[in-house]
Amino acid sequence: MNAPAIEFRHTSYRVDGRVVLGPLSLAVATGDVLVLLGRSGSGKTTALRLINGLLLPTAGEVLVQGRSTSAWDPVRLRRGIGYVIQEVGLFPHMSVERNVGVVPRLERWPAPRIRARVTELLALVGLPAGDFAARLPHQLSGGQRQRVGVARALAADPPVLLCDEPFGAVDPLARAELQAEFKALTARLRRTVVFVTHDVREALALASRIAVLEDGQLHFCGSPGEFQTSDDPHVRALRESA
Amino acid sequence: MRFFEYVIAYRAEVWQRTIEHIWLVVASVGLAIAVGVPLGILLTRRPRWRTPVLGFANIVQTIPSLALFGFLLPLPFIGGIGARTAIVALVLYGLLPIIRNTFTGIAAVDPAVREAARGMGMSDVQLLWMVELRLAAPVILAGIRIAVVLGVGIGTIAAAIGGGGLGAFIFRGVAMVNHVVILAGAIPAALLALMADGGLHLLERGLDWRRGKG
Questions:
Q1: Nearest to B135 among A87, A92, A149 (CB)
Q2: Which residues contact A234 (CB under 8 A, 6 or more apart)?
Q3: Which chain A residues are Cβ-neighbours of B123 within 8 angstroms?
Q4: Interface membership of B122 toward A (CB under 8 Å)
Q5: Do residues A105 and A114 make contact, with C-beta atoms less than 8 angstroms apart?
Q6: Of the four, A124, A221, B5, B176, which is 20 to 30 A from A138 by CA?
Q7: Average pLDDT in the A73-83 region?
Q8: Using one digit for the tens of pLDDT, what is the confidence trace for A94-132?
Q9: What separation in angstroms does the CA of B87 have from each of B31, B65, B69?
Q10: CA–CA min distance B186, chain A (Å)
């Protein structure tokens, strides 16, 4: 067994003395697609932001590639982690091409290599560069914007991808399609993915492992099959709500 | 038209006063940008400074301009008779719109955009330069435009403390009770304000990211 790509070790996060998350101990193996499943306020987004150092634990630690996030240079840490959020957060003043190429530009890739990479990624997320490269974000639909967000997160080939309800604001039809493509994409690229959602069906569709969070505590961690048969009351409640 | 006869007869002085006037505005707005934009950025990073800094800039705006020129006269280094004192006063007036618009423009950037930028590993400087200032540019420029128009108008009072500019005609005309002489200062000043306003407005539209590519 390889060292886990990401590991929470007795990690807690408090705000003003109130525990938002933890203590949490959880390891994500390289190549896993771990879905953090929970209601809003369960601490799942906090857990995600602890991985890329947007938050630092108030107790315990989070290891990324064996190194504590508080020991990483935050910029270096984040350049190696793709990040997709529900609101997408595309840069409204940059074309699709420039949005996708942001991290490679920050990493000072030569221009022809950036262009080739952007074309490749846009094709990968189903937005041919010929049609879409020059558009501005406000000229795209919600689903298209989210695809650009995924392409942007993958641009510099990060070994880890974090997704915070990326398909939450997309209409149901486009969501099912995006989920299917996302699953195919992660299977092909073999990235370590941590995916936050409150949608049980989405979790079952995408996960290789599911972790159930409630009130900042981990209540279940296992394969989708184990999730389906678990007797844990939290898991049962989630299953019944789906 | 006696106005045109006067302007033609005194064209050399009208020209010289206009150049003086432009210099007053360019120098003072330049300094106000150099101080105001960094201050506005600082306010987005240090919430506690917002009230005192904006409050101070607000109070300065309420001081009647002739009084402010008068207050500055006896001060060492920045005071005294001449253009320097006038420029200091104009900088103080220009600060508020520039600080406020820089702050407002950056504060209006979508938090999701900021979250994404940090999450993908932009440093503070990269976030500011590549994202926040680009998105806030039209708003900041609108503040600069207000400062310029304000400066052209208030700049006419510089002549009261020997600062030169088109106000020289206005004060002379008032003393002579001759409205033609007043107009020889007032009309070029109004034209300057209109041209600066129009030109900067065009630049503002050019910088607006909604209209073009980034």
A1: A92
A2: A212, A214, A219, A220
A3: 75
A4: yes
A5: yes
A6: A124
A7: 95
A8: 999 999 999 999 999 999 999 999 999 999 999 999 999
A9: 9, 12, 10
A10: 41
Give bridge partners of residue A59 from the DSSP assignment: A12
List, in order, residues 6 or more apart from A111 with CB less than 8 Å away: none
Q: What is the mean pLDDT of residues A76-92?
A: 94
A89 touches chain B (CB under 8 A): yes
Reduced to 3 states, what is the DSSP secondary structure of residue A20? Answer: strand
pLDDT tens, residue by residue, B127-157: 999 999 999 999 999 999 999 999 999 999 9
d(CA B116, CA B122): 9
Instruction: Name residue B129's amino acid.
Output: W
Q: A62-71, B74-83, B164-173, B180-189: which range is least confident on average?
A: B74-83
Pairing of strands A67-68, A18-28: unpaired
Q: Tell me the shortest Cα–Cα distance from B10 to chain A, in angstroms.
A: 50
Query: Given CA atoms B59, B62, B65, B71 in this order, what sign does their dihedral have?
Result: negative
Residue A7 · residue A59 · CB < 8 Å: no
Tokens for A209, please give them.
């492992």
Of B115, B130, B213, the CB nearest to A136: B213
